[in-house]
Every structure is written in C-alpha cells, then in structure tokens.
Amino acid sequence: MASRFGNSNSIWRQPLAVVGIVIISFWVFAAIFAPLISPYDPLAQDSDKFLTPGALHWMGTDELNRDIFSRVIYGARISLPYSILLVVLSALLGSIIGGISGYFGGRIDAIIMRLTDMFFAFPAIVLAMAVAAALGPEIRNAVIAITIVSWPVYARLVRGLILNAKQNDYVTASSLLGSSSLRTLVVDLRPNLAGPVFVLASLEVGNALLLLSGLSFLGLGAQPPAAEWGSMVSMGAVNFDRWWVGLFPGLAILSAVLAFNFIGDALRDALDPRTAKALRD
Amino acid sequence: MTLLSVRNLTVTLMTGSGPADAVRNLSFDIERGQILGIAGESGSGKTMTALSVMGLLPYKGKASGSINFDGQELVGFKPRDFRRIRGKDVAMIFQDPMTSLHPMLTIETQLTEHLRHHRKVSKSEARARALELLDTVKIPDPKTALKAHPSQFSGGMRQRIAIAMALACQPKLLIADEPTTALDVTVQAGILKLLDELRKSQNLSVIVITHDLGVLSALTDRIMIMYAGAEVESGLTSQVLTRPRHPYTRGLIDALPDSGADGKRLIAIDGMPPELGKFPSGCAFHPRCSFAQSECKTGVPNKVDIDGSRRIFCSVDPFDTSDSSAGVSR
Amino acid sequence: MKPIVEVKNLAVEYTRGDQKVRAVAGVDLSVGAGEILGLVGESGCGKSTLGKAIVGILQGAEGEVTFDGQPVTKIGRGQRDAHFRNLQMIFQDPYGSLNPRRKIGDQIADGPRIGGVSKGEAIEKAASLLERVGLPRNAVERYPHQFSGGQRQRIAIARALAISPKVIIADEPISALDTSSQAAVANLLVNLVEEFQMGLIFISHDLSIVRRISDRVAVMYLGKIVETGKTEEIWNFPAHPYTKALMSAIPHADGKALVLMSRCRSHSMMGEKSLVSCKMQVVRLKP
Predict the structure, then answer these.
(1) Contacts of B330 in chain C (CB under 8 A)
(2) Can you identify the CATH homologous superfamily of domain C3-101+143-238?
(3) Min CA distance, C249 vs chain B (Å)?
(4) What is the pTM of this model?
(5) For residues C215 and C230, is the Cβ–Cβ distance under 8 A?
(6) B240 touches B223 (CB < 8 A)
C-alpha cells in the first residue's frame, strides 16, 4: 500500500492528521469499551432531570433523567459505524454508476451526468429529509436516504478518472490483447480508482456523520430512546436554556467531523499531486 | 573574450533518499559569439548545469564552485539578483516552446510585456521592437503574427517566437535546452540556421543542450560530453565527433544508425545510464566500459589534455593514437 | 512473399470545426513475414493515424485492411476475435503504455490469460519473455515506475510478444528513449523479427534508423504515401522531391551540410493535399 499512496508526505508528518487520528482513536476506544467507561446505563432514567454538570454527572442529565456523559459515550457506537457504513455504501454505488458513465460514454454518460447535476442543485440535507420522510422515520431509512444523496460526488470523481485513464495507451494495448471493455474496467482501471476514491471517502465520513446527525436532529434518523448525538442535540435545542444538554453531544459531533476531515486532507496530500488535483477539480 | 567561465561546479539536489550530486566538479568556458554544445543522456546533469547558470535550480538544489558570468559571480546569487539578469543578460529556450509561451495571450502582449518590464520603454516603442524581433527570427508577416495566439503557429514557428522573446532584451548568453528535439528534421534545419545567424549578427553566445549529436555537429563550435554529472570529453566539435577519444563518446557515435558496420544491427552500449544518487565510484562509466581496468573502479579518472584545446577524463585512454598502437579510423 | 497485412485505399477523416481533414488519404501498403517495413514522414503526415487504423482502433477509418486473409474488424466492447490478437501495436511513450498501478508480470500475462492460459503458466511465460527482452525474471513482481524508459519499452515489447503475434506495428518505438537505449531496443526488434518471423511496421520520423533496419520503406506526406520501395533503392535513387528533401535535412554527426526546405511544407492542418515542389537550399553552417 505504501507505493499506492506515496510515501514522501507520510501522514504522520502532518500535525493535524495526528490530532485527527488521536481523536478518532479516542472515539473508537469509547465505542468499543462504552460499558466500561460510562458510569451509568445510557437509557436508565434513575437520576433527577436537568442536573447541571457536576461530580456525579460530569455532563449533567437530560429531561428524562439520563446521564449525558454515558449517552455521549454510547453515541459513538451509533455515529461512527453508521457514518463509515454510509461512505462505504455511497462510494460503492457512486463508483459503479460513475464507472458505467465514464466507460460507456455517449448517451448513458449524458443522462447520468445530468442526474448528478440535479442532485448537486439541491442542498443534500433537504433532499435526504424528503427521502427519509417518504420512507418513514427509522435509522435504516436514514441510511438509504443519505446514500441516495451522497453517491453523485463519487460518480463524478470516478467518471473523471476513467475518462482520463481511457486515453492511456495501456487501455488501447489491453483491448488489442483481447480484453473486453468490462475486463479493462475491472482489471486495468480499478487500481487507478481505488486510491482517489478512498481519499474522497475519508473526506466524506465527516459529511455523512453530519447528515446522519442532522436527520436524527429532525427526528428522521435514530429513534428514541437510542443515544445518538444528533437527536441529543435536538433535545438540547428544545431545552436551549439548559446549555449542557445540547453542548456536549454537539462537541462530540464537532470533534469527530473535524478529526475525519483532518485525516482525509492529510491522505489527499499524501497521494501524488496529480491524483490530488483530480480530487479538487 | 570569455563570457562565461564555470569552475568546479557541483550541483547538489535533494532526492527522496537524501542529497545527491547531479553535477560533479564541472569546468568549462564560453567565448563571446561562440556556440557550445553540451551532450549527454537524461540524468547526465546537462540540464542542471544550465539551470544553475539561470538560477533556476529545483527546490533545495544547491550550486557550489564558481560561475563567473561577464564579471559577476553567480554562485551565491540571491533570487532577486538572478531576476535582474535573467531574461536580460541570460535567456533560455526549451524543448517545448509552449512552456514559455502563454496560450491565452497574443504574441504582441507577450513580447511587449517582456520588453516593458526590463527596459521601461513606451508602448509604441515596444511594439516597434517586437516587429523587429519577429523579423529577426524570420516570422513571415510580423504584423499579422503580433495579433495571433501561440496555438495558431506550427511547432517550428512557435520555437522561433520563443527565440524572439528570449532575444527581446539582447541577452549576451542564450541557453537552448533541446531546442529542436520536438521538431521535424526539415523544420529543425531552419532553427539551427537561425541560431547560427544570430550568433554572427548579434555576437550572441549560445549553449545548446541536446542528446542529438547530429544537431551538435551542424551547429556548435565546441562540445562537452557529460556522463553521470561529470565531463568525459570536450573539445572542438569537428575533432570530438570525428575522432572520439573517450570510450563513452565513441560508444555514442557508434550507436548512431548511420555509423558502424553494415547490417541491421546497431552497436549498442551495454547497460544503462545510472540514476541520480547511484553513480558508480571511480569513473562512473566503468561498469559499461569494455576498456575498464581495475583502477577505473576506484580512482578518479585521469585528465588527459590533447593539443591544448581538447581533453578527456579517462585513465585508460584506449584510443590514444600518439604511439600509433590503436588504429582509429573514424 | 505473401503479405500478412494488406492495406488497400485506407482513409481516415477528422472533422475539425466545420471542415473535414483527411489525415490519411487513400493508402496502400503491405508487410510480409519476417519483413520490416519502415514508414517515415514528419509529424502530422498521418503515419501514426495510419498505424492505429491498421490495427482497428480508429472507428472512423475507411478502406480495406486484411490480416492473414481476413478483413480486420474494429475494436469494440467485447473481446477481440482471437485471430486478430496476433496483430499487435507498440507505442511511442513507454510511460503511457504500461499501467503504473499493476505489476509488470500481470500486465504481460494479460494476453495469454485472455486466451485461456492459467494464471501460473501465464506468469511463468511473462518471466521468460522478460528474460528474452533482456530484463531479470523477477521483474514480474515489480511496477513500471521502477524501470527506465528503455526498460519499459522492452516490457511493452514483451507484452506484445506474449501472444506470439504475426505482425507488430511499432509507432515511434525508440524516439522517446535515450541515445544508448535506442540502439539496444532497435536491435531487439530486429532480432525478434528474425527469430519469430514476424512482420514489423516501424513508424518513425527518423530516416537514419529506418534506413538501417528496414527491408522496405514507405515515405508518407500529407496523408499519402509518396514513395515506396526497397530501402537501398530509395536511399540511393530517391525519386520523389519530398524524399530527397527529407533525407538531406538530417544533420549527421560527421556531416556539415544541412538542407533547408523553404517552400516544401504546405500546411497539413489547413487540409491541403497537394505537394508543392520543394525548393531546396543547401546551407553550410560551418566552413
């Protein structure tokens, strides 16, 4: 893998990337060992409501008497795996559609590209809301909705990369050797796509997390009583005079999104400049 | 009169695996109105030599030794000092003229901008000078050409325009890096003739960097052959190319399709030129040299002066005819 | 000698803006087993386009190209007909013709594997071919960036050889290489042609190398072949003014005369087809 991602700008030499890795490691640790770390059951309603942060409840309690610190820790169990699942799904869907678009070109390409234009014209959250609302408020439907609105970036990237790579003599050479279009796409072009798509996905994890939290905030994602950061922030918004209810899950979202973006940026810089440029275009 | 005098020039570049010398202990001179050819394969350091004269070495590249240009010492020059002489006293043209021409601007804008920057002349004066320059490089119909964009010209015409830009401020030295490599032979001949005329009419000194020995033969007065960052042979072009003394020079000439024995096979030099940072010890050519002795592997090659105007760096000197032991026919 | 590749009245037209440009304007040529045909001309004369049209990668080509008796089909989406896989091409730029992200062994093994050979066998064959073109067997495990230009061109040649082609079209195969690699790669091609009795169409702008290695030469100008014949005959008695001019414009390492052709080039970009007579001017740069 070292050669694929280039080693001249190792991401360990970039301080922000290290910060990102530390933060994400913290959240992964929290998610895995949540039962050991959190002092209370995240669903237990056995304290008083709206206790201010203190020695017993480090981040206070919410309106249903639950310990916010424990809920933030447990929240990592939903936010992290779901946001990674989301980018995997959208990257797969987007790469396949972009691959078809770029390789076959012509009318298929034109139709798919106009479709992506339509997606880009809408704010993602509005579109995701519409889809999620139509499917019904459930976290599974939120995942489907977010996948549906996030594939176009990958499709664009993959199409661009393929259009570039198709002009290479090695693609021509390959077809002269008898390789079919499909084989060329899978064998010859896939390795060129893996790196850039991976980098884009790492940059998009933060977005996916934000979208998922956003939908949950609006009541269209994770459902009560599940401890999900977005829905916890929404509870804070209702009780905006109790600052701690929304602040701590909000900080959790902020830290994770920032951390994922730091890592994604660093990965992009670590890639060779040509691919990095393709990503920015 | 000597315009450029380079002594013990060493250029160190930063590579992925630490610093490496791309040019090693190079010395040469150019007289006014002289054309010097520097020949060598990729990685031989010929381009880095030129870039160190221009002050355009890559990031973290460092030149040491001495480069005396027209009385000024260029080693240790600040970027600001280089900007003052670059384009004005020393100019450069490249293999692909599109790298020095802006694709979106008219020829007039590009030629006059250049003049107005260095010479602070009025717009109409600059335009007159631009027309004159286009005429010098034999662009047909200069007035129409001024209004055109680079893409409207063929490769040879673009190279002529690039030369016109380089000449705008009447430089004393022109460095031409593979000026005709991208051009067809019929066009190439025209560019070579132009360079030769410029040297005569403007007393211009020219360094031509190329791997094409044919071009060097037609154009240059003196040549220097480089291998792995160092000089292997230099002298009058006619002498070096017709009676090469260094095994590498001889190998290059023998490898040309129009020399050597009959039949379809060419005489190739075994092996490959070494990469930067992996230059062999002793004489860098020794692993590919059929005359190599044990001393070539470790010792610095001997400098052999021949007739005062010519020298080779070879401890073996297998083609030395002075004692008539080896019959050199070429 | 019975030709393997026969080209009759081949034409390729491009549309540039609203005018049509004939890059190749009715070309006939042929190449037989064990024969090297040199195709020379300057950039823009259509020689590369002609090469691509012969192997069938230009959709717009018209005219007849037969390979071993059968008309060559154009490359489509599906697998290429096994018969035409024996018609191969080598490209000018050895950096673009190899996939930078795939192992060399896998790339050479592609041809045999598509032909139904098992992976292990195909890789084994790749290793022995690498040896044949002068590279170490363990190169199969390495990536293209670990090799120099000349070595990559050898790898590209090995990839074409892997399916024992009957004809190779080599488009400027040595012009991007260093002086010392040029001779070695040219020798390799000559050796392979003799060893495997392949036909080779050697496309080049460099007359001196074409003269040296080709049995026959075709000189191309503005989309047409203006002169063709045995190499030595053309060299000794060039009939067409363009051939004469092209030959004398090459600067030689030992020669001093250069020929300038001031009126020779009518601009092919403008779509002109006729060749104006060449006004030659002999220049002596040095006394």
Answers:
(1) 254
(2) P-loop containing nucleotide triphosphate hydrolases (3.40.50.300)
(3) 5
(4) 0.79
(5) yes
(6) yes
